[in-house]
Structure formats: structure tokens, C-alpha cells
Write a structure and sequence with these properties.
The chain is an alpha/beta fold. It contains ten helices and six strands; from the N terminus they run E-H-E-H-E-H-E-H-E-H-E-H-H-H-H-H. Helix 7 crosses helix 10. The termini are far apart.
Length: about 230
């Protein structure tokens, strides 16, 4: 028998956003919505992971752009260490790179910060029932992106050299293009520590000693091409 509306268990939510005004505004809004209970608020990804470990919420509403540990990395850690907690990304940036990075990290829902109360409640309910909680506009971009990816995969991509993984190859290409570790981290939506790990791994596999050698290697393998003047 289904419990009456008033007797259903309220979804326990943690809000993670580095902007105090935004975070407090979201907490205040959620406090007015039926079926939701805010049990904690975090100012960055590290604190979000810690609160999930302490409070075991049902859902985290996760901003992506945060210091120390960004939302994508925090999502990856939460889904790995606390699989009973779902993540719904709540962000100003509705760009495809952020969307796919968050989904790859394990997020089940994605909303922009201008989402209304009903939309937030629906997204939380959807992820808790095993469905994807994606805003309609995000769903359309996801389908378009998948269609583009399907077209691109008709031609098999070249194998990365020297046993590099796809992500290590991506990092190497970005090194070849002159990006710093911090810029690579922002580009791939991972932490700088993760970037350093990839660099150490690809250096070990290729026998490279420094970034200058990495740049020459990337150009020599045709992974990066000189820009036309």
C-alpha cells in the first residue's frame, strides 16, 4: 500500500555551493518545498564529501565550480565511496562539457540554478526512483551530443601510443598545446592532483622527463599539429 502524501519519507538533501548567498538561498528555497529536508550545506567539494560520510543524505545538490575539490571530482568520490547517495548537479553553467563530465562522474540529475521549486522536487524524486533527473533542455542537448558522438565513432580513432589511456592522451595533447596543470584541470573538469597523476603515469609509460620533452613527443606522434599562421 502506498503511504499517504503527508506520511512519505522526506528526501534528505545536502546542498554544496561555494557562494554563500547562493547556497543560503537554495537552502531557504528547499526548506519551503514539500518532501525535502535540508540536512547540511557545504562550501566546497571536500566538505560535501565529508558531510555525505557523516549524514548519509539521499541526495546532494552539487555545484560544479568550487575550490579545493570541484563538483565533478566530489561527485566521483561520493558515488564511489557512498553509493547510497545520489547527486543532482545544480549549476549556472549548462554547457555540454560540464554536463558530460558530471554524468561520467556518476551524477543522475542536472538542473540549472534558475530551476523552479517543482522542477527541483521532480528531479530529486526521479533520481531516488532510479530515473534520470534532467531538465528538458539538457535532455535535448544530451541527445544531440550522443548523435554527434555516434557519427564520430563510425571512423575508428587511432590507438594512443605507448599504451597510454585515452585520458592520458588527452592530458598529453593539452600539454602539447601549452596548457598548465591548472588549465588542464579546468578543461577536463578534474582536480589538479588528478592531472598530476595522469602526467606521472604518461611520463612513466613514455620515458619522458619533463614537459618540454612531452611537447616534442606530442608533436612527433602527430597528436598536436602546429597552428596555421
Amino acid at each position: 500500500m502506498t503511504a499517504p502524501e503527508g506520511e512519505r519519507k522526506r528526501a534528505r538533501v545536502v546542498v554544496a555551493d561555494d557562494q554563500t548567498v547562493v547556497r543560503e538561498g537554495i537552502v531557504m528555497l528547499l526548506g519551503l518545498l514539500p518532501g525535502l529536508e535540508v540536512v547540511g550545506a557545504a562550501g566546497d567539494g571536500e566538505e560535501a564529501v565529508r558531510l555525505v560520510g557523516e549524514l548519509a543524505p539521499d541526495v546532494v545538490l552539487m555545484d560544479l565550480r568550487m575550490p579545493r575539490c570541484d563538483g565533478v571530482e566530489a561527485t566521483r568520490r561520493i558515488r564511489s565511496e557512498y553509493p547510497g547517495t545520489q547527486v543532482v548537479v545544480l549549476t549556472t553553467f549548462a554547457d555540454d562539457e560540464s554536463l558530460f563530465a558530471a554524468l561520467r562522474a556518476g551524477a543522475r540529475g542536472y538542473l540549472t540554478k534558475d530551476a523552479g521549486g517543482e522542477e527541483i522536487v521532480r528531479a530529486v524524486q526521479n533520481v531516488l526512483s532510479g530515473e534520470a533527473g534532467l531538465a528538458p533542455g539538457i535532455q535535448l542537448r544530451l541527445l544531440e551530443k550522443l548523435s554527434q558522438a555516434e557519427v564520430r565513432t563510425t571512423a575508428a580513432p587511432p590507438e594512443p601510443p605507448d599504451g597510454l589511456t585515452t585520458r592520458e592522451s588527452e592530458v598529453l595533447v593539452l600539454i602539447g598545446e601549452g596548457l598548465s596543470n591548472q588549465e588542464i584541470a579546468r578543461k577536463l573538469h578534474v582536480s589538479t592532483a588528478t592531472v598530476k597523476t595522469h602526467i606521472n603515469n604518461l611520463f612513466a609509460k613514455t620515458g619522458l622527463k619533463d614537459r618540454a620533452q612531452a611537447v616534442r613527443y606530442a608533436y612527433g606522434k602527430g597528436m598536436v599539429r602546429p597552428r596555421a599562421e
